[in-house]
């Protein structure tokens, strides 16, 4: 019910949210991808808009519809997402990197379809690391801007999960990190989520579980009350 009585605490706030999963092209018909559905990022966009924020959603292959009446910029690869975020972030009060960014991309994209007869019985792909978009956004942060990252981890133990999150936020330099557990059955396609929000010191500032829209609202509560 709390989700229905939308407050207007984000009026005047411009929020840029990336969602979905990037695809790294191999040849004209194939890509390397991941299992992100985009549901949590879309829920964040929806919840932020209903609290009065001006939202831009940077969408990488969502498996769900983007909310109506929200600005949507479509991207495909990590390099596309990097360019879109660099363009959108400087005018944002809050930047949220909910997208699952491919860590590596093929060094070369074959101009034509890769053929079995040519490749043989095994195929080795050379991959190169993609730019760390969140780290770059954090380093380029304007005064007063809030940058939030996500960390999807498969670690089953909660203390170890939080420890991974603490190490990750220290590496990334963002203001908050939303840590969630993912696995074959948890996280991605699900309509529910369980998250722990860490601040830059590694302290737990919020924990939430339930529908992705209610989790989105608890993450937005952190922003609404942030001293940053
Ligand atoms: N991220 C990013 N650019 C990348 C990789 C990740 O901006 N090239 C962002 C994600 O959108 C997310 C955060 O960084 O907000 C953490 O992503 P994650 O994959 O958990 O962290 P990595 O640094 O890639 O570490 P690893 O995958 O090895 O755990
Ligand atoms: Ca990664």
UniProtKB/TrEMBL annotation:
Its cofactor is FMN; Mg(2+). The keyword Lyase applies. Pathway: Cofactor biosynthesis; coenzyme A biosynthesis; CoA from (R)-pantothenate: step 2/5; Cofactor biosynthesis; coenzyme A biosynthesis; CoA from (R)-pantothenate: step 3/5. The keyword NADP does not apply. Residues 11-224 form the DNA/pantothenate metabolism flavoprotein C-terminal domain. Residues 15-228 are annotated as: Phosphopantothenate--cysteine ligase. CTP binds at residues 103, 113, 131-134, 150, 168, 172. Coiled coil: none annotated. Its EC number is 4.1.1.36, 6.3.2.5. Binds 1 FMN per subunit. One of its GO terms (molecular function) is ligase activity. Keywords: Decarboxylase, Flavoprotein, FMN, Ligase, Lyase, Magnesium, Metal-binding, Multifunctional enzyme. It comes from the Bacteria. It catalyses: (R)-4'-phosphopantothenate + L-cysteine + CTP = N-[(R)-4-phosphopantothenoyl]-L-cysteine + CMP + diphosphate + H(+); N-[(R)-4-phosphopantothenoyl]-L-cysteine + H(+) = (R)-4'-phosphopantetheine + CO2. Catalyzes two sequential steps in the biosynthesis of coenzyme A. In the first step cysteine is conjugated to 4'-phosphopantothenate to form 4-phosphopantothenoylcysteine. In the second step the latter compound is decarboxylated to form 4'-phosphopantotheine. Catalyzes two steps in the biosynthesis of coenzyme A. In the first step cysteine is conjugated to 4'-phosphopantothenate to form 4-phosphopantothenoylcysteine, in the latter compound is decarboxylated to form 4'-phosphopantotheine. In the C-terminal section; belongs to the PPC synthetase family. This is Coenzyme A biosynthesis bifunctional protein CoaBC. It comes from Leifsonia kafniensis. The gene is coaBC. The chain holds residues 186 to 413 of 413 of the full protein.
